[in-house]
Design goal:
The chain has 10 helices and 8 strands. By secondary structure, the chain is an alpha/beta fold. The strands form 2 sheets. A 6-stranded parallel beta sheet has the order 5-4-1-6-7-8, with helices on both faces. A two-stranded antiparallel sheet has the order 2-3. Helix 9 links the parallel strand 6 (188-192) and strand 7. The model has no long low-confidence stretch (mean pLDDT 95).
């Protein structure tokens, strides 16, 4: 079997927040809401984000991604102890600041292995693409970080109206990557940090899958569930492990 396509998740796989998200939220909140407890912000962001993701998958709603993120930002601040009236009064100033920050390299950075690995896979003749449950701003981020030319297509859940783990988004990536008609789905592999969305979703679509678990601080932001069982999961600790795995498959 020859691997012809590698699709990647974006956040915590190719890129990571330049500093923890709750730290960056705190900096933007402070002039309007005062200094909030960092641990409370960290908890409230995670719980609010999960709730909005459940209620409005793929950034559904009349206001699109901006309205979706407004709910996350508002809920994060209030759950962390901010005064609800102060949040309401300043939300129209806070939301644009945070959305702009997380639209560029100001909010994000690439992992050290990202660009070298994307270049290496291209030299090996392997196509690379992106499949992400992100909104359209991710295009701006990847362009600013100089990696979008290596990822074709870029499939973002807001734009396609479907999100991982739905098999449709993986199948669309496969078709848009211009794989020829003789290429089977199991000649593609998806790499990401979420067991359900990335690993299980890709396998359900007929693709191979690799779950990334970076050691040390680089792995702090990965989406790990307390009850997850990865004993029978193919796990890699860096993107270079992906290159090695592809080489092994293509050598056989």
């Amino acid at each position: 079997m020859t691997i012809k396509l590698v699709t990647f998740d974006a956040l915590h796989t190719l890129i990571t927040p330049r500093r923890p998200i709750y730290t960056q939220y705190s900096e933007v909140f402070a002039p309007f809401l005062g200094v909030l407890n960092p641990a409370a912000l960290q908890r409230s962001f995670k719980t609010t984000l999960k709730q909005v993701q459940r209620d409005k998958p793929a950034y559904q709603g009349q206001s699109g991604a901006q309205g979706w993120w407004s709910e996350v930002i508002k809920g994060t601040a209030i759950e962390a102890g901010a005064d609800a009236k102060a949040v309401e009064a300043s939300l129209n100033q806070i939301v644009p600041k945070l959305l702009n920050r997380f639209s560029s390299r100001e909010g994000y950075k690439v992992f050290d292995d990202t660009l070298p690995v994307l270049r290496q896979l291209r030299e090996m003749g392997v196509r690379t693409a992106l499949v992400s449950n992100a909104d359209a701003r991710m295009r701006l981020v990847l362009t600013d970080l100089k990696i979008s030319p290596f990822l074709q297509p870029l499939l973002l859940s807001e734009e396609v109206g479907v999100e991982k783990p739905d098999v449709e988004i993986f199948q669309r990536a496969f078709w848009h990557a211009a794989c020829d008609s003789t290429t089977a789905f199991n000649q593609g592999v998806h790499v990401g940090d979420e067991l359900r969305c990335d690993y299980d979703g890709a396998q359900a679509a007929g693709m191979q899958a690799l779950l990334i678990r970076r050691p040390g601080p680089d792995g702090d932001g990965e989406n790990k569930e307390a009850e997850e069982d990865i004993r029978n999961v193919r796990v890699v600790s860096s993107l270079w492990d992906v290159v090695d795995w592809v080489r092994e498959q293509n050598a056989g």
